[in-house]
Amino acid sequence: MIRLEQVSKVFHGSAEAAVDHVTMEVPKGEICVLLGPSGCGKTTTLKMVNRLIEPSSGTITIDGRDTKSVDAVELRRGIGYVIQQIGLFPNKTVEENICVVPDMLGWDRAKSRARAAELLEMAALKPEAFLKRYPKELSGGQQQRIGVLRAIAADPPILLMDEPFGAIDPINREAIQDEFLKMQARLRKTIMFVSHDIDEAVKMGDRIAIFRAGRLVQYDTPDNILAHPGDGFVADFVGNDRTLKRLRLIRVAEAMMPDPPRVTPDDTLATAAARMEEYGHSAIVVVGPRGRVRGFVDAKQARGSRGLVGENFEPLPATADIDEDLRSAVSTMFRHDVTWIACVDGDGLYKGYITQRGITHLLGATYRA
Ligand SMILES: Nc1ncnc2c1ncn2[C@@H]1O[C@H](COP(=O)(O)OP(=O)(O)O)[C@@H](O)[C@H]1O
Ligand SMILES: [Mg+2]
Predict the structure, then answer these.
(1) What range does the domain containing 186 cover?
(2) Which of 232, 237, 274, 336 gets the most CB atoms within 10 Å of its CB?
(3) Are 229 and 349 in the same domain?
(4) Where a domain ends, among 247, 273, 304?
(5) Does residue 187 sit in the same domain as residue 81?
């Protein structure tokens, strides 16, 4: 756990504090994103944690130990650092770059070389293709990946990351973020992560600390920041589309009505109509013998009609996966111009449904809370 207690930094010759009485805690194994406009003190805060910058006042502890009482070099051995401009050594190969800290720590050469290959593998980069290349032979995205691998090479429990994916185009950025989150799910590092991008912060952060002119103005979970911005500055910063951003944080499974009514192809349309009436639904999903989604029957068609469901149902225009986020499910609903959508698991089994009205209600309920 990293804890900052009333930490300030006033640079020599400067009238104003770059960081002003910041108190916050990053719990073990979590990612805390420091978010705010340029110049608000994010990098300075980060660098005070590994003492690349000494605080003017206040206390920083790591697992309860005051960082001032630890030798700075010793301290940094336990803290991986990804600097703002990647900063790979241009005259070293990828392998040598990744092994910088293990080499410094005097690891056995075979062990550190094996580690480099293992890390490349983990970042979906083929070791045989990359180990011997130089940074200038890599794309920006690949360089940033190597920057991250270098920081975790010696397996430090703490990571400081300063806009680690800042120089990547949006598409590769999404991929690299996903990849990093997968790695983090395994590694459970305690991470301070600087960003100026609200979308990145919402995606990556277990918590978000919003800075303004050196002060910490709000520190909360992404959903609370989006649902309840503490003041006008935060509201402006997170944007008018904050409700849409929240949709990304909610999984379909959390928003759907579970155990929905259903019919099988062998049921009669009369049965289908009666079941829709009972639930007040205007449509009902048809499932096969093992519960796989087959299609749906419309109430208007079913009412007063004879015959079997199996001869009269229509295919569903779309389904949502229970593990996808609501933003993607809602865009599917808009794309197909439907007001509800059936939700299925990985095997295509019918698990529930979501409605536009239900989603509005869900978001509204948390705003009122
Ligand atoms: N070494 C320094 N000397 C003087 N002022 C600095 C130094 N480093 C940063 N600052 C100032 O401190 C403030 C915060 O900078 P920084 O932490 O880099 O912001 P951010 O990372 O949020 O963009 C800025 O006003 C910046 O100009
Ligand atoms: Mg910065």
Answers:
(1) 2-247
(2) 237
(3) no
(4) 247
(5) yes
For ligand 1, is residue 210 a contact (CB within 6 Å)? no
Q: For residues 12 and 209, is the Cβ–Cβ distance under 8 A?
A: no
Is the CB of 240 within 6 Å of ligand 1? no
pLDDT digits (tens, 9 = 90+) for 246-298: 898 899 999 999 999 999 999 999 999 999 999 999 999 999 999 999 999 99
How many distinct structural domains can be found in the chain? 2
Q: 29 near 198, Cβ under 8 Å?
A: no
Reference 116, options 140, 85, 145; nearest CA is: 145
CATH of the domain at 350: 3.10.580.10
**Last residue of a domain, which of 196, 219, 247?**
247
Closest listed residue to residue 22, CA positions, set 55, 67, 53: 55
72/41 same-domain check: yes
Q: 105-127 burial by CB neighbour count: b if 16+ within 10 A, else e?
A: eebeeeebbebbbebbebbebeb
Predicted TM-score of the model (pTM) = 0.81
- Between CA 168 and CA 228 the distance in angstroms is 30
Q: Is 14 in the pocket of ligand 1 (CB under 6 A)?
A: yes
Q: How far is the CA of 327 from the centre of ligand 2 (A)?
A: 30
Low-confidence stretches of the chain (pLDDT < 70) are 365-369
Whole-number Å distance between alpha carbons of 111 and 102: 9
